[in-house]
Specification:
single chain; 471 residues; mainly beta; five-stranded antiparallel beta sheet; disordered N terminus
């Protein structure tokens, strides 16, 4: 479980004590000099405490959207590695704050991967509160530049007072062949997944963009476990998940499960489940995952056609993030770079079940990437290092990786402009998606408005110049 950073307390101002006065001269007892009073210690001025951010977050002048095209996007960060290219043409970028952030969260944040389909973008945010939090799924229309709320988790579940309500959506959003978007919910804090709060496990939910409906698919497919990771087989409508145990759960550790939506039942579950991400091969219907966070943890395969428990393969790769399968039958993955100097990019051949190390991901000081997307041609990958805070240290670099030339290129350094012009620092993301046309990259940010860690969620829509995505 990725944990949120705590706000650091301010240091108390220091004081300077005066030196002791000199001794009186012993050889002149008849002329004793009176002791001068010590000078009053001067207190150093305390730094002004920043004003707390207001909710809901708003752009200057109350505007709903800001659109910028600037050469500042192409100014290299001081941390940029020597072998990383920079785009020649600046993108146009739309910027918006997510609606619904009407009160302070703990903090408001995104944790689950997003989806771009049929000309729209779908993403989730949550308030991270516990034991009774809330989370939302929004549809964004890039033509109208407007949001539409598809699901309010607290409203949908309508739990009694004192009962657990999830404050996060930590899993992917995936659309099934039935037109519904599926995802799992997650705890705001592990300490509230107890019988005291009537915790029975988290939910698999779905919402329908066409009708506006939302509903519960199942609660607690693994009893008293949360669901931080998932992927959907859209054709067969099998929802695959990895869990995190609740405090009072009988089954311990990360569990793998497969839930058949049509049949309404769990068709497989077992221990040593996916650590943070799953691979789905749409060409074969097979699902893969690793039970650990290391690059040498073996890959597991589940084949619903064959039945039985997952099978261990004689290959290993890093799997903190994964793309969808490309037209070439490749799924690209990234190892976990959290707390490390770099992360490894891997190519997984879904038909041969072979892996290849294709290079390193970091372009500056940050290496932790939690969302990885391939464009529709399968040639270009997109990602943002510094997922759990820290992306601003590399000026919030948005990276394009060319799988043919195996080179990294930054298409925009976003943070300097947004911090200076709008007072918003782009701290990191778990949620990116490429438009099916390949011309836009959506990034849902954990953003800060003069706070040490993030306090709200914002969206950037990066319109990638055609010259920067041509062979």
């Amino acid at each position: 479980m990725v944990r949120v950073l705590l706000f650091a307390s301010l240091l108390a101002a220091s004081f300077t004590l005066p030196k002791a006065s000199a001794e009186e001269k012993s050889k002149a007892p008849e002329k004793k000099t009176a002791k001068k009073p010590a000078a009053a210690a001067k207190e150093k001025p305390k730094a002004a405490k920043p004003e707390p951010p207001v909710f809901p977050p708003v752009l200057p002048g109350g505007k709903a959207t800001a659109t910028d095209t600037s050469d500042e996007f192409l100014k290299p960060a001081s941390t940029l590695k020597d072998d990383v290219k920079v785009a020649r043409t600046a993108p146009t970028v739309d910027f918006l704050y997510y609606p619904g952030q009407d009160y302070p969260g703990n903090p408001w944040s995104n944790w689950g991967d997003s989806l771009a389909v049929d000309g729209k973008y779908y993403a989730s945010i949550g308030d991270h509160l516990a034991p009774a939090g809330n989370a939302f799924v929004y549809e964004y229309d890039p033509e109208r530049k407007t949001f539409r709320k598809l699901i309010d988790v607290k409203q949908l579940l309508n739990m009694p007072e004192g009962h657990y309500v999830p404050g996060k959506i930590h899993s992917r959003l995936d659309m099934g062949s039935d037109g519904w978007i599926y995802f799992g919910t997650h705890r705001g804090s592990p300490r509230v997944t107890t019988d005291q709060y009537h915790y029975e496990g988290d939910w698999v939910l779905r919402c329908n963009p066409s009708t506006g409906e939302s509903e519960v698919v199942v609660r607690g497919p693994v009893p008293k476990h949360a669901i931080p990771t998932s992927v959907l087989d859209p054709k067969r409508l099998i929802f695959y998940g990895g869990t995190a145990e609740g405090a009072d759960a009988e089954l311990k550790g990360i569990r793998f499960f497969a839930y058949d939506v049509k049949a309404g039942k769990v068709i497989q579950t077992g221990p040593d489940g996916p650590y943070r991400y799953l691979i789905f091969a749409k060409s074969t219907g097979k699902t893969y995952y690793s039970s650990g966070s290391k690059d040498d943890d073996p890959l597991m395969r589940f084949d619903p056609a064959a039945g039985g428990p997952p099978v261990q393969l004689n290959v290993a790769l890093g799997l903190r993030a994964a793309s969808e399968e490309t037209p070439q039958g490749i799924v690209y993955t990234l190892s976990s770079g959290q707390g490390k100097g770099d992360a490894t990019l891997w190519a997984f051949d879904t038909k041969k079940e072979t892996v290849e190390n294709i290079g390193q991901a970091a372009v500056g000081s940050q290496a932790y990437v939690a969302s990885l997307d391939a464009d529709p041609t399968g040639r270009y990958l997109y990602y943002v290092p510094g997922a759990h805070g820290g992306s601003e240290q590399d000026d919030s670099a948005v990276v394009q990786y060319d799988t043919k030339t195996r080179t990294r290129k930054v298409i925009a350094f976003l943070n300097p402009l947004y911090a200076k012009k709008y007072g918003c620092t782009l701290k990191g993301t778990y949620s990116t998606a490429v438009d099916p046309k390949g011309d836009k990259l959506y990034v849902t940010w954990n953003a800060s408005r003069n706070t040490k860690v993030w306090d709200c969620c914002a969206l950037t829509v990066i319109h990638i110049p055609e010259s920067e995505r041509m062979p």
